[in-house]
Design brief:
- The protein has about 375 residues and is of the alpha+beta class.
- Strands 1, 2, 3, 4, 5, 6, 7, 10, 11, 13 and 16 form an eleven-stranded mixed sheet that branches.
- The radius of gyration is 21 Å and the shape is globular.
- α4 packs antiparallel against α5 and α4 packs antiparallel against α7.
- The longest helix has 16 residues.
- The chain has twelve helices and 18 strands.
Length: about 375
């Protein structure tokens, strides 16, 4: 399986190094992963806050740790060399309701109060009433304000439409720093959920000063029934053990890859179940209703600082409605599902679905990282 489809790109990631029982900062050179961890930049967060991260990664001396395809195929475990999520100290933030199609599905969840049995009827009613009127709107525009007023008059307004086409984006914390899982790991579903789905997204890598320096792929695992019961349950719906996957590596911006490539990106998702069920989906970044730079500016600025930088999920237009079980109840995950998210130029992120209570517990946090780096003599010259 090909995990990186553009080996000439400038790649930045992390590996678990069993010999030191800790993570290493790695880059990819001619298909081989090189450990470039140093006192100058012992974490990915440090790398991204350097004056020229791309030049640092390009010129850093490193030690070969293995070919990417072999490392990425290894089982995840403390005694095996394997890829980790390519972020470490950064805040993990996410934007919701940034595409018209997913916006309608959030409204449906709300109106159905988290019950998938009522979703099909509500989908038909709301879709026919407002679907076409939203597709070409730019969030926060005067035209969007007019549509908002009209929908309020019809009694169809929703908090999800407010963040979908109103002036303010929805931005939430997906998980704590260091909690994301990487390629090959299990992604977790809270066992209370009976209606859930993957959310394939592009994830931006942003420095503490707000510079957008690169991009990767992510799965913002979503519990539709939990959030549908109440938007105040967003934290329970979004942040659980192993519920955030990011990878395979950050592709840094350079002369061959820029933010405009992110704006034009085409994402593909596939789900393969142990029961023989298959699902495919597509998400086109050209249909996003808010520009990535606007989403970053709404998240990080004078109003809110992230001194270790952040990674930012940009949202998805993918909201599967195909029935997997009973008619009209739509799609939901089952343990053992293989989820593959891919995009040309950003590679492939593959994970296996499991209950959060059955996935490996998250134990290596920020404190463990600091102790590990100190023991390896990597914190002496860090700022």
């Amino acid at each position: 399986m090909t995990f990186i489809d553009e080996p000439r790109g400038l790649w930045l990631g992390r590996c678990w190094l069993p010999d030191v029982q800790g993570p290493g900062v790695v880059t990819l050179r001619e298909g081989v992963l090189f450990d470039i961890t140093s006192v100058e930049a012992p974490t990915v967060s440090h790398v991204l806050d350097l004056p020229d991260p791309a030049e640092h990664v390009r010129s850093a001396q490193g030690t070969s740790v293995g070919r990417l395809e072999e490392v990425a195929s290894n089982q995840v475990g403390l005694d095996t060399l394997h890829l980790l999520a390519p972020c470490d100290l950064q805040a993990v933030k996410a934007c919701g309701v940034t595409f018209a199609r997913s916006m309608l599905e959030r409204v449906i969840e709300e109106k159905a109060a988290g019950d998938p049995k009522g979703a099909e009827q509500i989908r038909a009613r709301i879709g026919s009433a407002i679907g076409d009127s939203l597709r070409n709107l730019r969030a926060g525009s005067p035209e969007a304000a007019n549509v908002k007023h009209a929908l309020q008059e019809e009694g169809l307004w929703s908090q999800y439409l407010e963040v979908g086409i109103g002036p303010d984006a929805e931005v939430f914390s997906k998980c704590p720093p260091m909690a994301s899982v990487g390629p090959g790991a299990e992604v977790g579903l809270h066992p209370v959920s009976k209606w859930n789905n993957p959310e394939p997204e592009i994830v931006l890598a942003v420095s503490s000063s707000g510079r957008i320096l690169g991009a990767t792929l992510g799965n913002d695992v979503n519990l539709r029934d939990v959030e549908g019961r109440s938007a105040l349950l967003l934290g329970k719906a979004k942040d659980n053990n192993a519920s955030c996957a990011i990878g395979p590596m950050i592709r840094l911006f350079d002369g061959g890859f820029t933010l405009d490539d992110v704006r034009r990106a085409e994402l593909t998702l596939s789900v393969e179940g142990l029961d023989g069920f298959t699902l495919t989906g597509h998400s086109s970044m050209s249909e996003i209703s808010r520009d990535p730079e606007d989403l970053v500016a709404q998240t990080l600025g004078r109003h809110h600082q992230y001194p270790d930088g952040m990674v930012l999920f940009l949202g998805t237009m993918f909201a599967p409605t195909e029935d997997r079980g009973a008619k009209g109840e739509g799609f939901t995950h089952k343990p053992g599902d293989i989820v593959t998210i891919s995009a040309p130029g950003l590679g492939r992120l593959v994970n296996v679905v499991q209950l959060s209570t059955e996935a490996p517990e998250w134990t290596f946090g920020t404190r463990a990282l600091m102790f590990n780096l100190a023991a390896r003599g990597l914190l002496g010259g860090a700022d």
